[in-house]
Amino acid sequence: MRASFGCIRGARAGGVADAGVMRLDSGDGLGGSGAADGGMPVGGAGGGRGAGGFLREVRDAVTPRSALLVLGVLALGVLFIASYAGAFHSPKPKDIPFGVVAPAQVRGEVVGRLDGLRGSPLSARAVASREAAAGQIRDRELDGALVVDQRGQQDVLLVASGGGQSLADAVERVVASAEEAQGRNVRTVDVAAADSGDARGLSAFYLVVGWCVGGYLCAAILAVSYGARPASPRRAVIRLGVLVLYAIALGVLGAVVIGPVLGALPGSVAGLAALGALVVCAAGATTFAFQGMLGVVGIGVTVLVIVIAGNPSAGGAYPYPLLPPFWRELGPALIPGAGTWTARSIAYFGGRAMTGPLLVLAAWAVGGAVLTLLFARVRASDAQRPV
């Protein structure tokens, strides 16, 4: 108001107010450069107000809620490091299902010797014939088998690198060492070999990881665009419908890219595409369910379950018998583990041993969808309840 009074004084003097009179003092709330408008404070006293204003701005920018979210992300980062390093830093074979084909007079001795190796790398059992052992390997009941030739010094080791090259290598090392200790040698035969374009047998794992990432990113993007929690059951149904269409598209595209385009994974394209649609639906519906329960925090919980816990325990880089006990037991129950096992079965084992993993994936997909609808109904009921 001091500028206005200056104009009045200028008018009374019969002149026009000069620039000096029209100056707006700092801190008057109408303009200028005081701390009130975020400008540089004038004078020594303004410096204190500027520091206080900065602290207030920090408090406004970093709310308690955002601080908790940052701490949550920090925890996820630490858990990511702990989970991946814990699973992969020192792989050791443990109780690998292993068959022994040997003459009756030495069968018990060979089984006992292999089963009693230090650290228990093998869980050995007798098998009637080489053909039966190869059949059990293709059925994914065994991960290897030793066929003893009592007439000579060389035995035959059956493995399946399609189930994971690192596992086949581990079986070969363990058996070769045990045979060497008996003055014998071994020749390896791969009865379900990984494709030449599938380095280390990892293509199935990478394919499933891509499907999982696509599933939870689709759900997360819908949450960012329209809110983490659906406003009504009808909105939840719409989101689930969009997810199904997206899952079919990503499943087909993933199967085509990994197979015909790159030649990285053999097997039925249609079978892999159907698996992909189920994996994407499972990951997306799980994300929807966690969002419906926890809001935006649910995305972090999804990352914890699928990425931090699921990927290291999936049996991709190191199949289950090479993982520490926690990850070995956890992996088959999670989406990446069930998906990776099924993709390898389609590619290398004629679709065998898939019932259990498919039921796991279906449980995640159906359970996530049901919980999404349930939380949406609860939210709609709360919104209609009179205050």
Please provide a written account of the structure.
This protein is an alpha/beta fold and 387 residues long. The protein has 14 helices and five strands. It has helices spanning 2-12, 19-22, 43-61, 64-88, 104-115, 130-138, 165-181, 203-226, 233-261, 269-294, 297-310, 325-330, 335-348, 355-384, and strands spanning 96-101, 122-126, 144-147, 154-159, 185-190. Strands 2-1-3-4-5 form a five-stranded mixed sheet, sandwiched between helices. α7 links the parallel β4 (154-159) and β5. α8 runs parallel beside α10 (269-294), α8 packs antiparallel against α11 (297-310) and α13 (335-348) runs antiparallel to α14. It is elongated and about 85 Å long. Mean pLDDT is 87; it is low at 1-48.
Number of strand elements? 5
SS-based class: alpha/beta
Average of per-residue pLDDT values = 87
Outline: elongated
Estimate the helix proportion, in percent: 55-70%
% residues in beta strands = 5-15%
Summarize the structure.
With 387 residues, the chain is of the alpha/beta class.
Please specify the SSE layout and strand pairing.
Elements: H1 2-12, H2 19-22, H3 43-61, H4 64-88, E1 96-101, H5 104-115, E2 122-126, H6 130-138, E3 144-147, E4 154-159, H7 165-181, E5 185-190, H8 203-226, H9 233-261, H10 269-294, H11 297-310, H12 325-330, H13 335-348, H14 355-384
